[in-house]
Amino acid sequence: YKGFIKDCPSGQLDAAGFQKIYKQFFPFGDPTKFATFVFNVFDENKDGRIEFSEFIQALSVTSRGTLDEKLRCKCSPRDAGGLSPARGPGGGKGVWTGPGNTVELPEEENTPEKRVDRIFAMMDKNADGKLTLQEFQEGSKADPSIVQALSLYDGLV
């Protein structure tokens, strides 16, 4: 709590402040879109600010939650109509780019769009162009890189 208040004396963190903090942890590439996505996941009441209670709840899920809890956290009620490559969790392929690349990727995955398209095709079992929450969860569990990414913060808190 003391660290949160030190960084956010008002007790609230806005999107610009969150992006500034996020960039310190991901210096490679431009994490702005991804930071905006994470901010929106953390901002549960959608008031444009993260209060300490929202921050600690989201941090708890990302660091100690089960894989299913983490995956549910990535989807919101607005995704109920199904996710598509252009409308991934939080709003599109730009979100999927993450905070920058530090490794060489194979030709078939060397752009965020190619990676999204490959993962989406693998997850979309009924080939209807949309992912249900169940398809998203099952597909995410089947991709080792997604499982690994969701496990990065395990035990942090």
Written description of the protein model:
- The protein has helices at 2-7, 15-25, 32-42, 52-64, 67-74, 93-96, 112-123, 133-142, 144-150, and strands at residues 12-14, 49-51.
- The protein is mainly alpha-helical and 157 residues long.
- A two-stranded antiparallel sheet has the order 1-2.
- α2 crosses α3.
- The two termini are 12 Å apart.
- The model is unreliable at 89-97 (pLDDT under 50).
Summarize it.
52% of the residues lie in helices and 4% in strands. With 157 residues, it is mainly alpha-helical.
Task: Please describe the structure with a list of short key phrases separated by commas or semicolons.
single chain; mainly alpha; 157 residues
Radius of gyration: 16 Å
How does the major sheet shape up?
A: 2 strands, antiparallel
Task: Please mark out the parts with pLDDT under 50 across 5 or more consecutive residues, or reply none.
Answer: 89-97
Portion in helices: 40-55%
- Roughly how many Å apart are the termini? 12 Å
Which structural class matches the secondary elements?
mainly alpha
**SS element count, helices:** 9
Beta-strand residue fraction: under 5%
